[in-house]
Design goal:
The chain has about 220 residues and is α/β, with parallel strands linked by helices. The protein folds into 2 domains: about 5-15 and about 100-220, Rossmann fold (3-Layer(aba) Sandwich), CATH 3.40.50; about 20-95, Transcription Termination Factor Rho, Rna-binding Domain, Chain A, Domain 1 (Orthogonal Bundle). Helices cover about 45% and strands about 10% of the residues. The chain contains 8 helices and 6 strands, in the order βαααααβαβαβαββ. The longest helix has 23 residues, at about 15-35. The mean pLDDT is about 95. The structure holds magnesium ion. Magnesium ion binds near residues 9, 10, 11, 182 and 184.
Length: about 220
């Protein structure tokens, strides 16, 4: 039995979409979103978490917004920030403000795997919720049904072998039956250390990672996995 685990950014999808479309959109809309929805049950607890951390009252929205924006600028992956970004993206996707980018060859690979009954999982630093949202609203339509499941960094850092061991244990399969697709050498090294097969997608300005199979696109795979 073979299992596929894939990264998103730089692997199934263009890094530029996330960096140039999604993150700037969340930054621009964050202040209005917080002011308009501060009282919602899916928003209020995250604002309270920020307020607690920066030691202001829960209703001190200007200070909370300023903190969130400073965290975005510092590229801080704070849980509250990620949750709020996810909700802002959800509205953007659902309002049709943008569609998620997925490479044509990645879509073809997902279709091949689906017809061959190869289970496909995602392992990405974006939250599981954001991953689902992403593949639900792509330029190629709703691809969410192509995946058996999703993993994010709550299972561990993508550059540590223990994270890949934990995923294999969760899937209850031998590490050698899993193939991991990513553009990042350090992630592939960690997966390999855990006994996984690895393939690097070398697209555009990807830095080639020695010690791993390399392909320019999923079309280059000469077998299903
Ligand atoms: Mg990547």
């Amino acid at each position: 039995m073979s299992i596929v685990v894939t990264d998103i950014e730089g692997t199934t999808s263009d890094i530029a979409f996330v960096q140039r479309v999604l993150f700037p959109y969340a930054r621009v809309h964050l202040p209005d979103f917080v002011r308009a929805h501060a009282g919602l049950p899916e928003v209020a607890p995250w604002l309270a978490m920020v307020a607690d951390e920066i030691r202001v009252a829960d209703d001190h929205l200007p200070a909370i917004i300023a903190a969130l924006l400073s965290w975005i600028d510092a590229d801080r992956k704070h849980t509250a920030l990620k949750a709020l970004q996810g909700q802002i993206w959800k509205r953007g996707f659902e309002n049709g403000e943008f569609k998620a980018h997925v490479y044509d060859d990645a879509v073809r690979a997902l279709q091949r795997w689906k017809s061959a009954d190869v289970p496909v999982y995602v392992y990405s630093s974006g939250s599981v919720q954001a991953q689902r949202l992403y593949f639900k609203h792509t330029e190629h339509g709703d691809l969410s049904g192509m995946f058996h499941g999703h993993f994010d960094t709550t299972i561990g850092n993508k550059r540590e072998a223990d994270s890949y061991r934990a995923i294999a244990a969760r899937l209850n399969v031998e590490p050698a039956s899993i193939t991991f697709y990513s553009d990042i050498g350090a992630e592939l090294d960690a997966a390999q250390e855990a006994g996984w097969n690895t393939v690097q997608l070398v697209r555009g300005d990807t830095t080639p990672a020695p010690g791993h199979r390399q392909v320019a696109s999923f079309d280059s795979l000469d077998q299903t996995v």
